[in-house]
Amino acid sequence: MKKLFILLALIVFSSIVIAGQGPEVIDLSKKFNVPKTTKKVVKFPHWFHQTKNQCTECHLDANGGKLKNIKKGGEFNPGVVKGTGNKVHKEFCWPCHKAKKVPRGKSCNKCHK
Ligand code: HEC
Ligand code: HEC
Ligand code: HEC
């Protein structure tokens, strides 16, 4: 009985460990080296997105790594992230939120909070 309990506990524990891949939440102002932030920095809910999307919708490879340019295809390169016309909005986050009709998907305080 005790052994069975330990076995079950191990199964539950390991399924928690594989619940998400890569970091759970990512500070994208750091990741994309935003030179100067005028809005609240975006803490991207990475694991949450994994429950709603396939890895390859955002990454070139199913294991993660390089990001995909969702608007133009190929590799995403954010360049210098400045102003509302930045590439992170236009070529990565917004095209998918628009396509998937995410509620308030382009509202500033949905992401900058
Ligand atoms: C779907 C998510 C999302 C939405 C919606 C969004 N942004 Fe952003 N924005 C980002 C990300 C990600 C960055 C880059 C990381 C960071 O700056 O924290 C960024 C960067 C910026 C930057 C450049 C960095 C800075 O702080 O100056 C500005 C300006 C900006 N956003 C303004 C806006 C405005 C205005 C709106 C509403 C019209 C908006 N954003 C809506 C995700 C979003
Ligand atoms: C909605 C978009 C999105 C989805 C879906 C997504 N990721 Fe990510 N992922 C990102 C972003 C944005 C980053 C941060 C940018 C970066 O690290 O280059 C990231 C970072 C990562 C990293 C860290 C890379 C590093 O160098 O630190 C790994 C690993 C990763 N993702 C794996 C995955 C896997 C595996 C899946 C599917 C189970 C997945 N991601 C699904 C957007 C996504
Ligand atoms: C490949 C598609 C895709 C991309 C790319 C994407 N998102 Fe999303 N995002 C979604 C979906 C789908 C939802 C969930 C809609 C729902 O069911 O409520 C969502 C929801 C969110 C939410 C709300 C989370 C919550 O707790 O309700 C935030 C914040 C968000 N996204 C930020 C971002 C930021 C920042 C980026 C760019 C770095 C981004 N997303 C890129 C598909 C995407």
UniProtKB/TrEMBL annotation:
Coiled coil: none annotated. Residues 1-19 form the signal peptide. Pfam families: Cytochrome_C7. The keyword Ligase does not apply. Keywords: Signal. Residues 42-113 form the Cytochrome c7-like domain. InterPro entries: Cyt_c7-like, Multihaem_cyt_sf. This is Multiheme c-type cytochrome. It comes from Deferribacter desulfuricans (strain DSM 14783 / JCM 11476 / NBRC 101012 / SSM1). The lineage of its organism: Bacteria, Pseudomonadati, Deferribacterota, Deferribacteres, Deferribacterales.
